[in-house]
Structures are given as structure tokens and as C-alpha cells.
Amino acid sequence: MNQLNNIKKFTNVVMDTGNLELIKKYLPKDVTTNPSLVYKEMTSYIYQEFIADAVSYANKQGGDKKTRLQNANDKLYVNVSKEILKLISGRVSIEIDIRLSFDYLALIERAKKIIFLCNQYGIEKNRVLIKLAATWEGIKAAEILEKSGINCNLTLIFSLIQARACAEAQVHLISPFIGRVCDWYFKNKKMQHKSLLYLDPGIKLAYKIYNFYKQRNYNTIIMGASFRNLKQIYALIGYDAITVAPIFFEQLSCMQKSNTILPHILPSLNKFKKLSESKFRWQYNYNAMAIEKLSEGIRLFFNDQKKIDNIFLKYL
């Protein structure tokens, strides 16, 4: 047995990609996407077909250029997701326009529109996770969406307070960004060696969230994301799920099974009183890393979304 199949016995290993050929090759159960991953594939033949179809759809829907651009983007992500779902048995995460991350009502409206489009084109909503940045507005939007039967993946989690707010909102799944946490501490010279796992603040955050959830019996799935090396992946064997780049699928599938150490869950504890917005913002404000990395993550996704927009604007 190779190491990839060994890990799969304990943890759902999700693929983080928009590359259809790699999905065909490794056949993960679930797939996550984002604007950066979609943009990376835009020059491929199949994506050119997706783009042409999205442009045709948007122009038929009509409206001003802004409306047509929005419709083209939505149809592109639905096209990509539909093709991915032909290859996997599980779910695909579709990211809502990152520019809406601080607009609670717009997030709800756009998410419902995406689900409606999915339904129109033969995708059942139970095969889709709506992906939102874990701002306060994103978390509150997810709370409403979950109540209407639309499951969400709250991404760009960099702090326990974000994770707690998501659990209290009964969000389906969260994605703590392990590697980016480590990046921040290394860049700011708050750690000297990325290779020393016991010093890795990303792994420490992952364990903290895991125990916080399991001790209090929250049902929200925790999916570790943004891995920088195999050691970080090994540290999260036994986690609910991890989403990893195709390169790690390749490396793990070529390695022999090794010993497995599962996370240790601490004794049960009672849940806290639900967070208010002011308490969330106050506690979040004290985490410089989380503030910087969430803002940076939104900007990075926005930059790649603009590149996708520019491709569409040539034809709309």
C-alpha cells in the first residue's frame, strides 16, 4: 500500500486543482477550486470551450457589461464544476466572487444564483459546496445559506475565533490555511526553521481548532489546506479532511506506507455562549497574522479574478 492510500484510510484527501487531467489521473473523492486555480487552466483547450460557452450564455442573458461579466463568470465556474463532477464521486467547492466578501446580502444572493445555475445544468446542490471567505459577513451569509440547505466551505481561516464563529453558525466545512500561517511567522522572523514541525504555528492552529471542535461536539468538518510540505500533511493524518495540490498526490502515491500517528482528542467541554459581532471583531483584531493573511488572501484571489475578467471583457 502506498502512503496516499494509507492516509485515505484515516482522512479524506481532497484535490486542490482545476486541472481535469490530474483529477482523471488521481481520482480524488472531492475537489476544491478557487480563482487562482481556474485562471491557471484558462489556456487549456477544454477551458477555452468553457470560456466560449460562458460568453455565449452571458451575451444571451443581456444587460450592461457588468451584468454580462458577472453572468460569464458564474457560468464559467458552473461549467468547470460540472466537468469535475463527471470525474469524482463527491463534491466540488465553487468560490463566490471574492469582491463580495464584506457584503452579507450580496453573498447570499450570488450563492443562491450559483446553485440555481447548477440546478439548471444538471448539478444537484448536494454535490456543491459554496466557498466563502471567513469574514464576519461571509460567516453570517453561510449561516443563512446552511439553513436553506446550501452547504458552505468557509475558506481563509487563520484563527481559532474564525473557526469558532463558523462552528456556531453551523457551517458545513471550514478550511484552515496551514502553510500560509507558517509563511507569516517565518517572514516576520517569529520562527527560524520551517522544517521543525513541533514549532510549526500552522500545525499548532490546526490542532487547536481540531480539539476545540471535537471537545464540544461541533459537526462542522475541518479540512486542512495550503500545505507547504509532506511533514505538514503527515501531521494532519486523522483530520476530517485535507485538500492538497496534485504534486502531493504524486509524491504520496510513489511512497511506501509509513507509521501513522492520529490526533489525540482532549476531554469534552461545554460550548461557549454564541459570539456576537463585536466580540468576534475584538478578538480577531488581536491576531495580527490572521488579519494580514485574510486580507492578503482576498487580494490574491481578487487579482486572479481580475485576470479572468479581462479575458471575458475581450468578448462581451
Automatic annotation (TrEMBL):
One of its GO terms (molecular function) is transaldolase activity. It comes from the Bacteria. The keyword Cell inner membrane does not apply. PROSITE patterns: TRANSALDOLASE_1, TRANSALDOLASE_2. It catalyses: D-sedoheptulose 7-phosphate + D-glyceraldehyde 3-phosphate = D-erythrose 4-phosphate + beta-D-fructose 6-phosphate. CDD domains: Transaldolase_TalAB. The keyword Transferase applies. Keywords: Pentose shunt, Schiff base, Transferase. This is transaldolase. It comes from Wigglesworthia glossinidia endosymbiont of Glossina morsitans morsitans.
